[in-house]
Amino acid sequence: MSPEELVGLGVSPEMVVVIISALPVAELRVALPVAINLFQLPWYYALLLAVAGSLLPVPFLLLFFDSLSRLLGRVRVMERGLNWLFERTRKRGTIIERYERIGLVLFVAIPLPVTGVWTGSIAAVLLGLRFRYAFIAISIGAFVAGAIVTTLCLLGWVGAVIAGVGLGGLAAASLWRFQLVENGGSHGDETLSK
């Protein structure tokens, strides 16, 4: 169902933004363009709604995810899905392991797929971070991500080009890093020493 259809059913644009922000994967990365570009909400109001909406599931995830995952893990199909989720989160969460709270802020602040409040909350649970510190770090990260996405939305096509170049650069850096790992860490240092 599209945002316009929800509004047609009587749901306010503000509530649609909050709902989209609270959804996993979409979060505020999708909610802010909908709020600013589709619903024409003022940027500061859209940012406030999107950050608030994205933070709604965080306390529940931090408090209950561990117990819920143990319960769901008893079902074979769910166990596979949870194991996949945990493995992906652990792989992506190396910055959090290294820098803890600051790493969690940075992890959530990067507005890319498989980062954000949902994955950050799960990573915080898996790494055993205390509720208060995790919630504060995730909140700061969500605000920073919201500021980045808001800026890109306000820049229009220029923002889209900046985001595309940034994502392309990240993809290239990831591929380069992957190639370094596969080649045993050799990156041409021997040519520099000649």
At a glance:
With 194 residues, this protein is mainly alpha-helical. Helix content is 79%, strand content 0%.
Architecture overview:
This protein is mostly helical. It has one domain (3-183). The protein has eleven helices and no strands. The protein has helices spanning 3-8, 13-22, 27-38, 43-55, 58-72, 76-92, 94-109, 117-126, 131-154, 157-182, 189-192. Helix 5 crosses helix 9 and helix 9 crosses helix 10. It is globular. It starts with a helix and ends with a helix.
Beta-strand percentage range: under 5%
What is the count of β-strands?
0
Give a quick account of the main beta sheet: strands, pairing sense, barrel closure: none
CA-based gyration radius: 19 Å
**Ends apart, CA distance between termini:** 62 Å
Number of helices: 11
Low-confidence stretches: 188-194
Give the SSE order as H and E letters. HHHHHHHHHHH
Structural class: mainly alpha
Helix content: over 70%
Kindly give the count of domains.
Answer: 1
General shape = globular
Average pLDDT number: 85
